[in-house]
Amino acid sequence: MTEKIEFTLNVNGGDHAVRVEPRKTLVDTIREDCGLTGTHIGCEHGVCGACTVILDGEAVRSCLMFAVQAQGKRIRTVEGLADGTTLHPLQRAFMAHHGLQCGFCTPGFLMLAANTLETRPDISDDELLDVLSSNLCRCTGYTNIVSAVKSVRDAMRAGK
């Protein structure tokens, strides 16, 4: 059995003391050791994007990282989007534009979109489509997801 390593992860502004094997992925650690199950495990190969989190201001596939690599970094998961009971504008837009059906891919899309709009608020329609196409959805046909994200982007531009 591999020896476990103890360290602290900062997730959504809170510290979580964890003790894991060096080979344990960040997504598994977030779900199992931090108790935050909003980040989903999909393909486990970095293809689907269901496990997307924001790590020090960058959207990453948490299935492709070891938890120990995130030590000392700020991790933001889908649970960190809402402000208490007030949903994030993207969460409200996904509901208003029917950008979810089964909901499995939704956390990954929300985190990818949040990071994109936070870092590139002036992103063009074509660039946004290119970014969002990196995540997979089997239910929605993408149109409503793209509409939801564009609506938030446009509201940000209008200062709303």
Describe the structure.
This protein is of the alpha+beta class and 160 residues long. It has two domains: 5-80, Beta-grasp domain (Ubiquitin-like (UB roll), Roll); 89-157, DNA polymerase, domain 1, CATH 1.10.150.120. The protein has helices spanning 26-32, 89-96, 106-119, 125-132, 143-157, and strands at residues 5-11, 14-20, 52-55, 58-61, 74-76. The chain has a five-stranded mixed β-sheet with strand order 2-1-5-3-4, sandwiched between helices. A hairpin with a 2-residue loop joins β3 (52-55) and β4 (58-61). The longest helix is centred in the C-terminal third of the chain and has 15 residues, at 143-157. The chain is globular and about 50 Å long. The N and C termini lie far apart (54 Å).
Which sequence of SSEs, written as H and E, runs from N to C? EEHEEEHHHH
User: Helical segment tally?
Assistant: 5
The number of domains is 2
**Largest sheet, order of strands side by side?**
2-1-5-3-4
**CATH topology category name of the largest domain:** Ubiquitin-like (UB roll)
Architecture per CATH nomenclature, i.e. the level-2 architecture of the largest domain: Roll
